[in-house]
Amino acid sequence: EAHTRMQSSTIQQNITTLRNRVNELGVAEPVIQQAGADRVIVQLPGVQDTAKAKDILGRTATLEIRMVDDESDIEAALRGQVPFGAELLTERGGGALLVKKQVLLTGDRITDAQPGFDNDNQPAVHVTLDNNGARIFKQLTRNNVGKRMAILLVEKNHAEVVTAPVIREEIGGGRVQISGRMSSVEARDVALLLRAGALAAPMEIIEERTVGPSLGADNITRGFNSTLFGFLAVTVFIML
Question: What span, in angstroms and rounded, lies between the C-alpha atoms of 132 and 199?
């Protein structure tokens, strides 16, 4: 019973997230509803790029902020001797990086995320944190000036360090910038995913159907004709 309750709750969370993502994609009159115990039906009228829609709907991307472990021996870690409380990850476009396992801030604290550009005119994502997140981030940066902070993108249990900047000063106001070897398209997609929230559990697409405009037109014609014939039949009956 507890398992069923948890499964139902997870499905409902995912439906909410999917609805947010579809709204971000700008689909008019979508249908998102539960079908059975573990399936969700999503109908997206007018979407031309189905591959893009599937990618956005299925991704589990969320954000984590942790500290880089610069005190430990990276060479020893590369030989398999990873220190307790840390893990070996890869920085995008760079090499291996020791990152502490303790998560200091997650994407749950994000209230908005927009694509844009950094000071070097490179694609970036500008993230706004809620009050609690802003307070945590301010304290985190105040206590770790001169140290490196790792901003991770986590998808399907795979974590990648997008950027690992040195904290120059305390950062208040709840504004975080994520930039690091990403294209404008990826910045837009990541911003969308962070705005809409992460899926509570991964979802796989098990069946896909595309209804073409000709089939839709046939249905409209049939509906119109049936209404017309019904109206004529009623008119004749009344006249008789």
Answer: 22
Q: What is the pLDDT of residues 19-46, one digit of tens each?
A: 888 887 788 888 888 888 888 888 888 8
DSSP sequence for 24-56:
HHT-SS-EEEEETTTEEEEE-TT-S-HHHHHHH
pLDDT tens digits for range 163-188: 898 999 999 888 988 887 788 988 88
Instruction: For residue 82, give the DSSP letter.
Output: P
Q: Is the pTM of this model over 0.85?
A: no
Per residue, what are the HEC states of 196-216?
A: HCCCCCCCCCCCCCCCCHHHH
Structure-block tokens of residue 231: 């109206």
11 CB-contact burial (10 Å; exposed 0-12 / middle 13-18 / buried 19+) = buried
Report the distance separating Cα 172 and Cα 141, nearest Å. Answer: 9
198 closest CA partner among 20, 28, 51, 41:
20
User: Is residue 127 scored above 80 in pLDDT?
Assistant: yes
CA distances (Å), origin 207, targets 53, 54, 165, 225: 14, 11, 42, 32
From residue 156, alpha-carbon distances to 3, 87, 109, 147 in Å are 21, 17, 20, 28
The predicted structure's pLDDT at residue 108: 85
Tokens of 112: 């908005």
